[in-house]
Amino acid sequence: MRHSIITMAAAALFVAVATARADVSVTVDHNDVEASKPSFTFKRVPPPSKTDAASKAKFAIVDGERDEAGGDLEKLNDGKLPTEQDEPHENFFFDAGTDGGRIGVDLGRAIEIKQINTYSWHPDTRGPQVYKVYAADGSEPGFNSSPKAGYDPTKSGFKRIAAVDTRPKPGEPAGGGQYGVSIADSAGGAIGKYRYLLFEASSTEDADDYGNTFFSEIDVIDAAAPTTSSSATTQPIFITGKYATIEVTNAPELQEWAQSKLLPVCDEWYPIIVKMLPSEGYTAPEHFTIQFRNNMNRGIPAATGAGQISCNIAWFKRNLEGEARGAIVHEMVHVVQQYGLARRNNPQATRNPGWMVEGVADYIRWFKYEPQTHGAEIRNAANAKFDASYRVTANFLNWVTDKYDKDLVAKMNAAMRQGKYSDELWKQYTGKTAEELAAEWKESLPGGGGAAAATTAPSPRS
Ligand SMILES: [Zn+2]
């Protein structure tokens, strides 16, 4: 379900401090946790842009500290978006335990600003946005582009443009999910002609140290720029099968391949994966989407969040005859895993080790979907670690399954989905600890206990 919360006219605030022409309106759209997709699509707020005026602007921290668990300031204007709801290094946020800070933006020259759009994504209180934004053209007497906290920006030559607060009101549903905020002239004109922007962000709560918003992107739309939004001018291309809808709007050249090669794999393998990974009371999503995107980080072939698989167009075009379909099988496992459920339903849920999450996905891919490729074979045991994730863990899981318990992966999956994973489970299911199993597994591999050499090829993150 997707819903929007507030459209707030900030005109009154604005008129008080400025004589400029625009009536500024603030539009807030919210996708709740379930409805949040890596594509950041909103009901009214436009999707993030890669070619907006902010993409070439200089961003600087004017006051406050960056949280080093997060990304650099470039996360705000690189046009790239997180692919999951809790991906710290793909967002910028101020340091834990602080009440936000100030970010300055220098557009290089004064432009007629049509919109200022801000985007954020987090499953909890770091989703909503609370900030004020100021603007200046730089010619104001006594202008200072970087007023520190405690100095009123309007005394440094800035005009206050808008105040934004997207937090839910008391009694409304929780504030996790994605927020898109669009600050614009209510008549569709320009907000004004400005070179400098100053954002003053505040944390959304002080109940704990983790209230600073995960900002994913800030866009500044130049009124003079041609409207380049591909979604507005390009006909969307969707291919729909029994379980999957594949969107290739941004890569029409993949349409034929997606229809004839990829869709049949989804139709055949999605129900097989669902059957392999049952657990009590669980129903897998009936339908999911696969979106081919050109704004993913290089080095990430594909990623899954909130029931949507995102695919990196450049990577897929290079690997169409090779790994492309297997990579989608891996992502379909993530769609079925739904391990986020446990943490939403059960506050006591344990965190699943990432190497198991990826190991299960690669186990199904390499040992069930495409065993003939031998893609997860280990040629030398020397460096093999059972918790090395991806293919190496897949190989370990396959070995334990063959030797000790043919239902091991199904059982581990059920435990992880319920938030009950623990290292004890290995002993419970096989009579041996993971370390004991790993030692036996290494013995069984070619060169077991022997010379040092490479294991399998390293896998790309997916
Ligand atoms: Zn994965």
Topology, please?
Blueprint: E1 2-9, H1 11-17, E2 24-31, E3 58-63, E4 101-122, E5 130-136, E6 159-165, E7 177-185, E8 192-201, E9 215-222, H2 230-233, E10 238-240, E11 244-247, H3 255-276, E12 288-293, E13 302-305, E14 308-312, H4 313-319, H5 324-337, H6 340-345, H7 354-369, H8 390-403, H9 408-417, H10 424-430, H11 434-444
Parallel strand pairs: 11-12, 12-14
Antiparallel strand pairs: 1-2, 2-7, 3-4, 4-7, 4-8, 4-9, 5-6, 5-8, 10-11, 13-14
Zinc ion binds next to helix 5 and helix 7.
How would you explain this protein's 3D organization?
With 462 residues, this protein is of the alpha+beta class. It folds into 2 domains: 3-228, Sandwich (Jelly Rolls); 238-444, Neutral Protease, domain 2, CATH 1.10.390. Helix content is 26%, strand content 23%. The chain contains 11 helices and 14 strands. The protein has helices at residues 11-17, 230-233, 255-276, 313-319, 324-337, 340-345, 354-369, 390-403, 408-417, 424-430, 434-444, and strands at 2-9, 24-31, 58-63, 101-122, 130-136, 159-165, 177-185, 192-201, 215-222, 238-240, 244-247, 288-293, 302-305, 308-312. The strands form 2 sheets. Strands 1, 2, 3, 4, 5, 6, 7, 8 and 9 form a 9-stranded antiparallel sheet that branches. A 5-stranded mixed sheet has the order 10-11-12-14-13. Helix 3 packs across helix 5. It is elongated. Mean pLDDT is 89; it is low at 1-20 and 450-455. Zinc ion (ZN) binds next to helix 5 and helix 7.
